[in-house]
Design brief:
Blueprint: H1 2-21, E1 28-31, H2 53-59, E2 65-68, E3 73-80, E4 90-94, E5 101-107, E6 112-115, E7 118-120, E8 132-133, E9 140-143, E10 146-148, E11 155-157, E12 167-168, E13 171-173, E14 176-178, E15 190-195, E16 198-200, E17 203-205, E18 209-221, E19 224-228, E20 239-244, E21 256-261, E22 264-268, E23 274-279, E24 287-293, E25 296-300, E26 305-306, E27 314-315, E28 318-320, E29 323-325, E30 337-338, E31 342-343, E32 346-348, E33 351-353, E34 365-366, E35 374-376, E36 379-381, E37 400-401, E38 407-409, E39 414-417, E40 431-432, E41 443-445, E42 463-466, E43 472-479, E44 484-487, E45 498-503, H3 525-529, E46 543-544, E47 549-550, E48 560-561, E49 564-567, E50 570-572, H4 615-632
Parallel strand pairs: 1-2, 2-4, 3-5, 4-6, 5-7, 5-8, 6-9, 7-10, 8-11, 9-13, 10-14, 11-15, 12-15, 13-16, 14-17, 15-18, 16-18, 17-19, 18-20, 18-21, 19-22, 20-23, 21-24, 22-25, 23-26, 24-27, 24-28, 25-29, 27-31, 28-32, 29-33, 30-34, 32-35, 33-36, 36-37
Antiparallel strand pairs: 38-39, 40-45, 41-44, 42-43, 42-45, 43-44, 46-47, 48-49, 49-50
C-alpha cells in the first residue's frame, strides 16, 4: 500500500510538472469589424480577425490582449467575467489610429485593463447602464479613454449594499470624461467605493459631481475638473469631489486616509457648487485624515471645503498649500473653507483671493478651535479694497491680509506667483518635533502626523524637511494614533524643530528657498519640472523665470503626427476638418466659454505645475476630433495620457 501511494504521488507530481510545461501561452486576439471578412468564427488573428469584442471576452484569460483595430463602431456592452492575474491582466487595447467606439464595459473580474477607446451611448442602442462598471473588483485599470455623452455615470465601482466588497488597488488614469448623463440633469463622472485606488490625470467636464469616492487610503491627484453650467444640474449642485454617508453605519463608506492633491478646478457654476465636499459623515462614524494640498480653484460657486451645516463629522482633516481665486460665494456663505464638525483640523499656507462674500464678518475660513483645530500663514485679499478681518484668520499670528498675491496672469487663470508676491517664502511649517521624541534615529514623533501620507494607493511616500529646509528624509510608515513617523534614514533633531513637506506623492519638490510659498504654486516649479511637449504637434517649451509660466510652441504645419499631419497645432488626417475653429461642432454644448483656450497658448493653465499647456485646450481637441471623425475620419487626437503632467 505504501509503495502504491508513493507511486501515485510521483505520477501526480509528474503530471503537474507536465501541465506547467505546456501551460497556455499568452495570446493577442484581433478585432476589426471594418474588415469585410471579420467574423466571430475566425481564429482571431490579425489576418482573420473577430467581429466583436464579446468574442474576445469569451476567449481571453490572464495575460491575453484584445487588440481592437482603429475606426470601428461596436454597439455592444462588453461583459468580462474571466479574471487576469497580478502582472498579467486581461487587456482590451485600442490600436493606434482613430479610436474604436464602444457602448460600454461591465467588468466582473479582477486584473482587467481597458485602454484607448471612445466609450459613449451616443448613436448606440439603448443601454441604461454606466459606461464602465467594475464594482468590487481588484486591480482594474481604466486608462486613456474618451468617455462622453453617457446614459448614466461614466465610471462606476459602487455597491450601496451593506457589507458589499470595495474595489481594491484600481487605477483610473488619463481619461477625458465629458457630458455625463442627460444635458439637463448631469450625473457623476467617477463614483467608486475603493481601498488603495488611484485616480489621476483625468479631465472631467459637464457633470453633476466629478468624483464621488469612498473607502480607505485612496489618492486623487492632478485631475482637471471644469465647466459645469447651472442649467445642466436640474436642481442638484456640482462638486469637483464629494463623499458622504447615506445613513447606515454598517456600510462604513466614509472616506478615511484620503489624499486630494494637485487638482485644477475651475468654472463650476451655481450658488451651491463646491470644490471638495465631505458631508453627513456622522451617519457612519465620521471620516478621518483627509489631506487636500496644492490644489487650485478658479470661479467656484460656493465653499471649497465645507461641513454642510455641521453634518460633517470626523478628525484630522488638513487643507494646506491651496489657491482659491474668484470663488463666487453668495447668500450666507461668507467663508471659503468650513470645517464645522472636524476635530483637529488644520488650515495652513492657503491663498484666498476674492474668495469670500464682500460682507462682514470677514473670517476667511471656519474652524472649531476648542477641538484642537488650527490655522496660520494664510493670505486673504479682496480686490475691492482693505477689510478688517475677524477670527480666525484675523487673529492668526502669521496671516497675510489685504495684500495682493500678485498672480502671474489671473485673467488667464495663471495662478503662479510673480517674484514680488507677498506670498513668496511666507508659508509656515505644518507641525513640529514632539517633546516626547528621542532626538535621533528613524522613529520621529511629531505633534501631528496627519499632514503626511506614507504612499497610499502605490504613490510615492512623502519626503519631509526636519529642522531645516535642506535636512530631507523619506517617510517609510506612519502610525497615526501615536503621531510616529518611521523614516527611511536617521536624522538628528530637537524637540520643537519645524517640519515641512518637501516632496509630494509624485516626488515633486514643493519646498524651495527658506520657507514654502503660500498657495499652490512655487515660482521655482518650472525650473524643476520643465516644460515638456504636450503632444505630437507641440515642441518643448521654455519657462519664463519672472512669471513661472511655460511656453508651448506649435510645430510647423505639415509636421508628421500620429495618423496624419499637424495643422495649426492639431493633428489631422488628410482632408480632416480644422478642429480649432469649430471645436465641438455637432456635439452638445461642450465648453463654449473656454473655446478660445487652445493649444499653443503661452499660459499653462494655473501655473507651471501643469507643465506644457492647458488641459482644457486638449479637452477641446478631443471634442473637436469626435465631431470631425464623423465628418471626415480625422486622425486620433492627442490622448489624455499624452496630456501635460504635473
Amino acid at each position: 500500500m505504501a509503495k502504491s501511494r508513493r507511486m501515485f504521488l510521483v505520477l501526480a507530481a509528474a503530471a503537474l510538472l507536465l501541465h506547467a510545461g505546456v501551460a497556455r501561452a499568452q495570446a493577442t486576439f484581433h478585432v476589426d469589424n471594418t474588415q469585410a471578412g471579420a467574423s466571430d468564427g475566425n481564429d482571431g488573428s490579425a489576418s482573420s480577425p473577430w467581429r466583436t469584442l464579446g468574442r474576445c471576452a469569451a476567449a481571453m484569460a490572464a495575460g491575453d490582449i484584445c487588440l481592437v483595430a482603429p475606426d470601428g463602431v461596436y454597439d455592444e456592452r462588453v461583459q468580462q467575467s474571466q479574471p487576469g492575474a497580478a502582472g498579467v491582466p486581461v487587456t482590451y487595447r485600442a490600436a493606434a489610429g482613430i479610436r474604436p467606439r464602444v457602448r460600454g464595459f461591465t467588468i466582473g473580474a479582477g486584473h482587467v485593463r481597458v485602454e484607448g477607446f471612445e466609450i459613449t451611448s451616443q448613436g448606440m442602442s439603448a443601454d441604461n447602464n454606466r459606461s464602465i462598471v467594475f464594482t468590487g473588483q481588484e486591480q482594474v485599470e481604466i486608462v486613456d479613454n474618451i468617455i462622453h455623452d453617457t446614459t448614466r455615470e461614466a465610471v462606476h465601482a459602487m455597491d450601496w449594499s451593506a457589507g458589499a466588497p470595495r474595489a481594491r488597488r484600481c487605477l483610473v488614469k488619463g481619461n477625458v470624461i465629458a457630458n455625463v448623463g442627460p444635458p439637463s440633469g448631469r450625473l457623476v463622472g467617477v463614483q467608486a467605493s475603493c481601498d488603495g485606488c488611484l485616480f489621476e490625470e483625468n479631465d472631467l467636464s459637464h457633470f453633476q459631481d466629478g468624483f464621488r469616492v469612498y473607502g480607505r487610503e485612496n489618492v486623487l491627484r492632478n485631475n482637471v475638473v471644469h465647466d459645469v453650467a447651472e442649467a445642466e444640474l436640474a436642481g442638484a449642485h456640482a462638486d469637483a469631489f464629494q463623499s458622504f454617508c447615506n445613513g447606515s453605519p454598517a456600510e462604513d463608506i466614509a472616506v478615511h486616509f484620503l489624499l486630494l492633491e494637485g487638482f485644477s478646478v475651475r468654472d463650476m457654476a451655481g450658488p451651491d457648487a463646491h470644490g471638495f465636499l465631505i458631508n453627513g459623515t456622522q451617519d457612519c462614524g465620521g471620516s478621518s485624515t483627509v489631506i487636500a494640498r496644492y490644489n487650485s480653484f478658479c470661479r467656484i460657486g460656493s465653499e471649497i471645503y465645507y461641513g454642510d451645516d455641521n453634518r460633517a463629522f470626523g478628525d484630522h482633516h488638513k487643507f494646506y498649500g491651496n489657491t482659491i481665486a474668484a470663488a463666487g460665494l453668495v447668500s450666507a456663505d461668507h467663508i471659503a473653507m468650513g470645517f464645522s464638525g472636524i476635530e483637529r483640523a488644520g488650515v495652513f499656507n492657503n491663498i484666498l483671493f476674492d474668495a469670500i462674500v464682500d460682507r462682514a464678518p470677514y473670517s476667511g475660513y471656519g474652524l472649531r478651535p476648542e477641538s484642537g483645530s488650527q490655522g496660520d500663514h494664510n493670505l486673504a485679499f479682496l480686490s475691492a479694497g482693505q477689510r478688517a478681518w475677524g477670527a480666525p484668520i484675523g487673529t492668526d499670528p502669521h496671516s497675510v491680509l489685504n495684500q495682493d498675491p500678485l498672480f502671474a496672469g489671473l485673467a488667464d487663470d495663471v495662478l503662479a506667483l510673480q517674484p514680488g508676491s507677498p506670498a513668496r517664502d511666507a508659508g509656515g511649517p505644518l507641525t513640529q518635533v514632539a517633546a516626547s521624541d528621542s532626538g535621533s534615529g528613524t522613529s520621529l514623533v511629531v505633534d501631528d502626523a496627519h499632514f503626511f501620507q506614507p504612499g497610499w494607493a502605490g504613490t510615492s511616500p512623502d519626503f519631509l524637511a526636519v529642522g531645516a529646509v535642506d535636512r530631507v528624509v523619506e517617510i517609510r510608515a506612519i502610525d497615526y494614533p501615536t503621531n510616529t513617523i518611521t523614516l527611511a534614514s536617521p536624522v538628528s533633531r530637537t524637540a520643537g524643530d519645524r517640519v515641512w513637506l518637501f516632496k509630494d506623492s509624485s516626488g515633486r519638490v514643493v519646498l524651495h528657498g527658506g520657507a514654502p510659498d503660500i498657495g499652490a504654486f512655487e515660482l521655482a516649479d518650472c525650473n524643476v519640472v520643465g516644460c515638456p511637449a504636450q503632444d505630437g504637434c507641440h515642441g518643448v517649451g521654455t519657462c519664463d523665470p519672472q512669471t513661472g509660466v511655460c511656453s508651448n510652441p506649435r510645430l510647423p504645419d505639415g509636421t508628421a503626427c500620429s495618423g496624419g499631419t499637424c495643422q495649426g497645432g492639431i493633428c489631422t488626417s488628410p482632408g480632416g476638418a480644422d478642429a480649432g475653429a469649430d471645436a465641438g461642432a455637432g456635439e452638445p454644448d461642450a465648453a463654449p466659454d473656454v473655446a478660445d483656450r487652445g493649444p499653443g497658448a503661452t499660459s499653462s493653465g494655473c501655473g507651471c505645475r501643469i507643465a506644457g499647456g492647458d488641459r482644457g485646450g486638449a479637452f477641446l481637441l478631443a471634442l473637436a476630433w469626435l465631431a470631425s471623425r464623423r465628418r471626415s475620419g480625422a486622425a486620433r487626437p492627442p490622448t489624455a495620457a499624452r496630456l501635460p503632467r504635473r
